[in-house]
Write a structure and sequence with these properties.
Elements lengths: L7 H28 L17 E4 L9 E7 L2 E6 L8 E6 L7 E10 L3 H26 L4 H17 L4 H19 L16 H8 L28 E2 L2 E2 L1 H22 L5 E10 L2 E7 L3 E5 L5 E3 L9 H9 L4 E4 L1 E4 L9 E2 L1 H4 L9 E6 L7 E5 L1 H4 L4 H11 L7 H10 L6 E7 H13 L1
Antiparallel strand pairs: 1-2, 2-3, 3-17, 4-5, 5-8, 6-7, 8-9, 8-14, 9-15, 10-11, 10-16, 12-13, 16-17
Length: 443
């Protein structure tokens, strides 16, 4: 019997080959996640609404496919994971924020992971809610929440230590507020963070030709950017009205900047679209970043767009990307730098540094008394892959008297039509809302 002794260099080559095989398999999974069609995720609501009911559908190949439903007054939402490996849509429904008369609805459509959609849901929405409450208090002449907290904390300090010097009390207060601010802007939920390494050689070549090499180090003002100026909250008040368009724009851009910094620290390349609607009386303000979409059904049954998709092939977006030194290619769908199928998003830090992808929202404002609408539809593009605006409006109109105002039916129908994406649909039945408001006034 012959005994063969392998040379050390042969053993090393073999080990390298095995490592490369595992590496290539991991890269394939990651690249399909990033380069595939945009994935979307659904999340918990932060409002005073009933808990989401989690339903388990039949499994496909492996794992359970989930769906989520919510019904609260004149609002209904339904979402399915569909044919995606993960559910990455997030939606939020805040009906009558803190009794201010302002309601907020949002759909976040994550891609490349759940991190960005989670971040937008957990940071952006509370920021907007708090600003709305503070502004409403200002208009009503009430002391702002921050002033009340400051007074209460000083009183507590005095009650503990006696009548101390006023400066000492304020100093202790500021330290507490500083600590609270630091904690609020840091990531503490480790289960929310999934590190994603950029390892695909082809993708790296594309990225390196566009932006600086990716690194864990976060340097402030890397490209000469000025720090975001501190905005006086009162500046959002015009007379006795709130400038919601400017408020939404500033909050979206501020959170995107924080998200990009957090993503760089964790090497997480995820991004998310954002569709946010604020409803106050007959005034509707819609902020859109990406390709989720809102549609209104007017009194005649016509489909009125509430937003317009941000797609790389659009002339405006293509020219902006070209001016920033980027390019758009077709690979099944049009993509920014051959990577991303939407030209605007929160996150996506490898494409953000040179503004190939931006987070600037488009803002549209509507006076609902001009349209006397029946309902609104807000949905991730899993729905719009299989329905046109007109088809969706006609479908919901026929089913508006169903328990979910047609949200469940259209979501499942989109899945049956072959949508390959997560699908999230929010239907706002304005006829029911007007009836409720009228009843409340009579009471």
């Amino acid at each position: 019997m012959r005994i063969y002794v392998l040379k050390p260099e042969v053993l090393v080559c073999g080990a390298v080959l095995i490592v490369m095989l595992f590496y290539l398999q991991a890269v394939d999974v990651w690249s399909r996640t990033l380069l595939g069609r945009i994935q979307y995720t659904l999340g918990r609501s932060t409002s005073k609404v009933s808990k989401l009911q989690f339903l388990v559908n039949s499994s496909v190949n492996s794992g359970e496919k989930l769906s989520w439903e919510l019904k609260e007054g004149y609002i209904s939402a339904y979402a399915v994971q569909g044919r995606r490996a993960r559910m990455e849509d997030r939606f939020v429904i805040n009906n009558d924020i803190n009794s201010t008369g302002v309601s907020l609805f949002a759909v976040f459509d994550g891609h490349g992971g759940e991190f960005a959609a989670n971040y937008a849901r957990d940071k952006l929405i509370p920021n907007i809610n708090n600003k709305v409450i503070e502004l409403k208090d200002m208009i009503a002449g009430k002391p702002s929440k921050s002033k009340v907290e400051k007074t209460d904390l000083i009183d507590k300090e005095k009650s503990k230590t006696g009548e101390k010097d006023k400066n000492e009390g304020i100093s202790a207060l500021e330290r507490k507020k500083s600590f609270r601010k630091t904690a609020s802007t840091s990531l503490t939920d480790e289960s929310m963070i999934k590190t994603v390494g950029v390892t695909d050689p082809e993708l790296l070549n594309k990225l390196e030709s566009l932006v600086r090499p990716i690194t864990r180090e976060v340097r402030p003002n890397l490209h000469g950017e000025k720090p975001l100026p501190k905005i006086d909250t009162a500046s959002y008040i015009d007379g006795d009205k709130i400038n919601y368009g400017r408020l939404l724009t500033d909050e979206v851009l501020a959170v995107d900047r924080l998200l990009v910094s957090a993503a760089k620290k964790n090497m997480d390349v995820a991004g998310t679209t954002a569709l946010i609607a604020l409803l106050e009386g007959n005034k509707l303000i819609v902020a859109n970043v990406g390709d989720s979409r809102g549609v209104m059904c007017d009194s005649k049954g016509n489909a009125i767009p509430l937003s317009f998709d941000h797609k790389p092939q659009q002339q405006r977006e293509r020219m902006r990307i070209k001016d920033a030194g980027g390019f758009v290619t077709f690979n099944g769908v049009w993509r920014v730098a051959g990577i991303l199928a939407t030209s605007r998003a929160l996150g996506d830090y490898p494409l953000k540094d040179k503004k190939l992808v931006i987070a600037d929202p488009d803002i549209l404002t509507f006076d609902l008394s001009d349209h006397n609408p029946m309902f609104l539809i807000l949905a991730s593009d899993g729905l719009w892959d299989t329905f046109s605006n007109e088809e969706a409006v006609a479908f919901i109109k026929e089913r508006i008297n169903e328990p979910h105002y047609g949200a469940k039916s259209i979501t499942l129908q989109s899945y049956y039509r072959g949508s390959l994406d997560n699908i999230t649909v929010v239907v706002i039945n304005l006829k029911e809302r007007k009836y409720s408001v009228a009843t409340a006034k009579r009471a």
